[in-house]
Amino acid sequence: MAALGEKSVREKEKEKNNKQSKEKQKTDESELLTVPDGWKEPQFMKEDNPRGLLEESSFATLFPKYREAYLKECWPLVQKALGEIFINATLDLIEGSITVSTTKKTFDPYAIIRARDLIKLLARSVPFEQAVRILQDDMACDIIKIGTLVRNRERFVKRRQRLIGPKGSTLKALELLTNCYVLVQGNTVSALGPYSGLKEVRKVVLDTMKNIHPIYNIKTLMIKRELANNPDLRTQSWDRFLPNFRHKSLSKRQKPKKKKVKKEYTPFPPPQPESQVDRELASGEFFLRESEKRRRKMKEIKVKQAEALSRKQEERKKAFIPPKEKPAEKKTKKASTEDKLDIQAIKEKVKKAKNKKLGAPPPKPAAPPADGKKKKSRS
């Protein structure tokens, strides 16, 4: 009995310990998910690596011919930017390549990787003002190859244009939502920005090439942005808020324009069609001479020619037939009260004009009749 009591006590203690460990794990996970606002990773300084690098490492990349003029102009700025992190850069216009390599003063081992990304972006037609941002700690780049995702060239061009949008509006919306710089050039899409934004950009680009319109992904990104601002919903699942766009699977089988109607099955074969000899025997042509047959054929041909000629003449005459004009309508003058002259009013005007010339006062207006009705002027 005592042994059973000890076992039950031990089991209870184990359960308590398990509960406490689970609670600790939950609290630890919540602490890991929340990052304090304004926190930045400390910058890598020379004091962290005073001895420098053991060996020299270098990267090279080719650039197209049309980028040669731009790289010549901005090359002093590139050398200045890379010189600040002690990276040596060389531009070879004969081979069409850019090479970056470390020096004895280079202390940051990751600086050569950033320099490699910089020359890649410059070769992919990204302007220097944007490409130089890769040298910052919180920036990264992603070059997405889209040339081999669609086989048909026309479809590829249409989907690439869909990603850009009318006057670049779709691309601009994507840049604002992801805080990334995106450039669509040839068979590649170059993106530059924070890691979280690059992940979203890659998803949108690949979905667009798979015939999913980018507006769907942009809508979800807008909703996610609003949810992230709410501190209560940060640790919760967002599946109930995000829209679920269903893909319509249309059947690719092409239906024929003319459908064949199956005839009723009959065991007997169809009747044999009449041959030309049978038709001639029925009409009596078989017993005629060859000369008479020729005359008949010539008559038929001439009749057909005459009919065709008459049709053509009728079509030509149609152009010379004048169109039917509408009959001219005669305007009947009706004696209206507006057209008639008011003689009484004209007489009063003449009297007023005479009185003004003579200097006499104008006559007083006549008082209205007792009935309150105005007398009609006789015309």
What would you say this structure looks like, in words?
Helices cover about 45% and strands about 10% of the residues. The protein contains 11 helices and 6 strands. The strands form 2 sheets. A 3-stranded antiparallel β-sheet has the order 1-3-2. Strands 4-6-5 form a 3-stranded antiparallel β-sheet, with helices on both faces. Helix 6 packs parallel to helix 8 and helix 7 packs antiparallel against helix 8. The C terminus is likely disordered. Keywords: Nucleus, Ribonucleoprotein, Ribosome biogenesis, RNA-binding, rRNA processing. InterPro entries: KH_dom (IPR004087), KH_dom_type_1_sf (IPR036612), KRR1-like_KH1 (IPR041174), KRR1-like_KH1_euk (IPR048550), KRR1-like_KH2 (IPR048548), KRR1-like_KH2_euk (IPR048549), rRNA_assembly_KRR1 (IPR024166). This is KRR1 small subunit processome component.
